[in-house]
Amino acid sequence: MSSSTTTSNVLLIDLHVKYIQSLDKKRDTLEYWITEHLRLAGVYWGLTALDLMNHVDALDRDDVIAYVKSCQWPNGGFSGHVNHDPHLLYTLYAVQILLIEDAIDAVDVDKIVEYVSDLQDKETGAFKGDEWGEIDTRFSYSALSCLSLLKRLDAIDVPKAVEFIMKCKNFDGGFGSTPGAESHAGQIFCCVGALAIVNSLHLVDGDLLGWWLCERQLKNGGLNGRPQKLEDVCYSWWVLSALSILGKLHWINKEKLFEFVLSAQDTESGGIADRPGDMADVFHTVFGVAGLSLLGYPGLKLVDPVYCLPKHVIQRRGLAERYKV
Ligand SMILES: [Zn+2]
């Protein structure tokens, strides 16, 4: 179960491609079944990593599209796997996957727009994740990203959505999950990304937030998500993408971060772990690869910091450069 002890100072692309391909062939393992509710997310993480590594064809396109379609509900939303409940997060993953495959017309887009816009609270502008009503800035990002990718931001109250996000801004320049909740790198990515999508970055306190973000880099080169926490490869994405949107990517030490992410690779079975020595998973694999892409690691396609999709996908949608600091 443990990862290999040898390390590599280059990205082991062939090994990571094989690792992602192998994930669907583990149906006889317990791990496969306990993560069933995450399956659609896993496809998005795996496919994005593959595309950035120039191997999008490593997963069969027809199979991917058919699987995504099988997760759509009559109300337009998507679930994490067939026969699970629909949720906003999985609805965004479905749209992202279909855009990578250039196959958005395979599903009922109007129904998706209806599903997402129905989740906005008309009074506060916040978004619920599903019919049960939990509110979180992650859902604000998911809704704005999803509708922007579908070019249907007109379906919601954008000024209200922005108003809610700004209520979640803290004195340190960061953002939390709800008003009053502490700043957290994942939530900062969501809020800064959401504001970028609707051309409202002027509302961000760029220098103050930039400092908070670059202070996330620890001596070993890795980044943490909050003060006093351990470094973690997935934060190389949440922190870097926010810094990139704010035009401050050069505020962190790129070489040290390269070293940290590459040292978290499994040099025997492929995949990237949260930190060196831990077990690899597809979540940390995509965010490790995306972080390296954002820093210009050679041989990778460029990633878009706002949509967390390969840049060429965003350009194909005609959405490039719609956000500027
Ligand atoms: Zn992590």
From TrEMBL:
Cofactor-binding details, from the entry: Binds 1 zinc ion per subunit.
Documented EC number(s): 2.5.1.60
Prenyltransferase alpha-alpha toroid domain sequence ranges: 11-309
Function: Catalyzes the transfer of a geranylgeranyl moiety from geranylgeranyl diphosphate to both cysteines of proteins with the C-terminal sequence -XXCC, -XCXC and -CCXX.
Name this protein carries in UniProt: Geranylgeranyl transferase type-2 subunit beta
Domain of life: Eukaryota
Catalytic activity field: geranylgeranyl diphosphate + L-cysteinyl-[protein] = S-geranylgeranyl-L-cysteinyl-[protein] + diphosphate
GO cellular component: Rab-protein geranylgeranyltransferase complex
Entry's family note: Belongs to the protein prenyltransferase subunit beta family.
Swiss-Prot/TrEMBL cofactor(s): Zn(2+)
Species of origin: Paraglomus brasilianum
Keywords, sorted A to Z: Metal-binding, Prenyltransferase, Repeat, Transferase, Zinc
Alphabetized GO MF terms: metal ion binding; Rab geranylgeranyltransferase activity
